[in-house]
Design a protein that fits this description.
The structure is a single chain. The chain is of the alpha/beta class. It folds into three domains: about 100 residues, Gyrase A, domain 2 (2-Layer Sandwich); about 140 residues, tRNA modification GTPase MnmE domain 2 (Four Helix Bundle (Hemerythrin (Met), subunit A), Up-down Bundle), CATH 1.20.120.430; about 140 residues, P-loop containing nucleotide triphosphate hydrolases (Rossmann fold, 3-Layer(aba) Sandwich). The protein is about 45% helix and about 15% strand. It contains 14 helices and twelve strands. It has a six-stranded mixed beta sheet with strand order 3-4-5-2-1-6. A six-stranded mixed beta sheet has the order 8-9-7-10-11-12, sandwiched between helices. A hairpin with a 6-residue loop joins strand 1 and strand 2. The radius of gyration is 29 Å and the shape is flat. About 0% of the residues have low confidence. InterPro entries: G_TrmE, GTP-bd, GTP-bd_TrmE_N, GTPase_MnmE, MnmE_dom2, MnmE_helical, P-loop_NTPase, Small_GTP-bd. Its EC number is 3.6.-.-. It is found in: Cytoplasm. Its cofactor is K(+).
């Protein structure tokens, strides 16, 4: 494979700029710039020279094949964080036959060299895009290989069950203990049960990974935009006494105590002869229906026709007078903290149901495995053994043991350069 390089730190000025090399020429190229570096995984301060030109003085490290992130020879140079230095080093590397890495190419090589499975790679992508503590924890579980270990555990049970069934086929004319097929069926049932539990947690995990959506709905002039501005602590939406000011959907992305939440300010719910406002109302109704949670805001504290059973019903404009139920004032902030407490409590319960499976591709692989196992136990042993093989194949595909080629570009293209 080519030896590749990339700046692993964000471009621009900073304290340090890290340039990473990976491939068969990594050590040789590093030593052509910095001199001999005999001890692997030990940082050394060296002068980087391209011929007589001193590029920089940098910390250099090299990792031998099999002991690096990519599994290849890897070298790192920690430069002073000036773009001109990184650019000058890039010229020297290009002159030595290296090429610039593409997005996600380091991680792609780590996968191809068996340093991570496909589920770990997806977890790494999630970690790089995580914005809240809950997302970070979820991604870390994936990068640590929990899903891969669970898949291997399930496959081991299927292999054991398949071996028992094959034995019953091969030795049908000989004496085989009666408990053998019973053990196989118990193993199949255990795998079925585990897969169902994993799939049951998938919707909650996917929502946590992508972030929750909370829609603020209600009639015009109920204070929806004022509430959004109060939550965001800045002017996001225009506020006016004129009904119908908000026509399109405004979004506020926020970290609610570690949970990723997007609040939506929607157009006031009313009949309108204005076609633009009517489009805004229709779009707001649709987005509210798709949201994970809705805050129904009204001046009388009563639910409108658009309210659903799980809505949070709130009386607005508490600064003008309070009533029964939850009362808030987006203008003064009264009751807003308590409202956010309630939103957090509702979403926290949903987040607690999350599991290991957070990607559609993973869930589809599990569904194929479960479908293969949904066979009658009375079916012929040969067909049952084939069902086990199909299920094991689906589990292997889930973590990229086989058939991963179709997903590589999609997954690694979302990575940054140098990762």
């Amino acid at each position: 494979m080519d030896t590749i390089f990339a700046e692993a730190t964000p471009p621009g000025r900073g304290g340090v700029s890290v340039v990473r090399l990976s491939g068969p020429k990594a050590r040789a190229v590093l030593e052509s710039l910095a001199g001999p570096v005999a001890t692997p995984r030990m940082a050394a301060l060296r002068a980087l020279r391209d011929g007589e030109d001193l590029i920089d003085r940098a910390l250099v490290i090299w990792f031998e094949e099999g002991h690096s992130f990519t599994g290849e020879e890897v070298a790192e140079m920690h430069l002073h964080g000036a773009p001109v230095i990184a650019n000058r080093l890039a010229q020297a590397l290009l002159a030595r036959g290296l090429r610039r890495a593409e997005a996600g190419e380091f991680s792609n090589r780590a996968f191809l060299n068996g340093r991570m499975d496909l589920a770990e790679a997806e977890g790494l992508a999630d970690l790089l895009s995580a914005e809240t503590e809950a997302q970070r924890k979820l991604a870390m579980r994936a990068t640590e290989g929990e899903l891969g270990r669970k898949a291997d555990e399930l496959r081991a049970k299927l292999v054991r069950a398949g071996a028992l069934i094959e034995a019953s086929i091969d030795f049908a004319d000989e004496e085989v203990p009666e408990e053998v097929p019973a053990e196989a069926l118990d193993l199949i049932e255990a795998v079925r049960s585990d897969i169902r539990l994993m799939l049951a947690g998938y919707p909650a995990t996917e929502r946590l990974r992508q972030g929750y959506v909370v829609a603020i709905i209600g009639p015009p002039n109920a204070g929806k935009s004022t509430l959004l501005n109060r939550i965001g602590q800045r002017d996001i939406a225009l506020v006016s006494e004129i009904a119908g000011t908000t026509r399109d959907i405004l979004e506020l992305h926020t970290d609610l105590r570690g949970l990723p939440v997007t609040f939506l300010d929607t157009a006031g719910l009313r009949e309108s002869s204005d076609p633009v406002e009517a489009m805004g109302v229709a779009r707001g109704v649709q987005k509210a229906a798709e949201a994970d949670l809705r805050i129904h805001l009204s001046v009388d504290g009563l639910a409108g026709e658009a309210a659903k059973e799980d809505d949070i019903i709130v009386r607005a404009k508490a600064d003008l007078g309070r009533g029964a139920g939850i009362s808030i004032s987006g203008l003064t902030g009264e009751g807003v903290a308590e409202l956010l407490d309630l939103v957090y409590d509702r979403l926290r319960v949903r987040a607690a149901a999350s599991g290991l499976v957070g990607h559609k591709r993973q869930a589809e692989a599990l569904q194929r495995a479960l479908a293969a196992l949904e066979v009658e136990y009375s079916t012929a042993p040969e067909f049952l053994a084939e069902a086990l093989r199909q299920a094991a194949q689906a589990l292997a595909m889930m973590v990229g043991r086989v058939g991963a080629e179709d997903y590589l570009d999609e997954i690694f293209s979302s990575f940054c350069i140098g990762k």
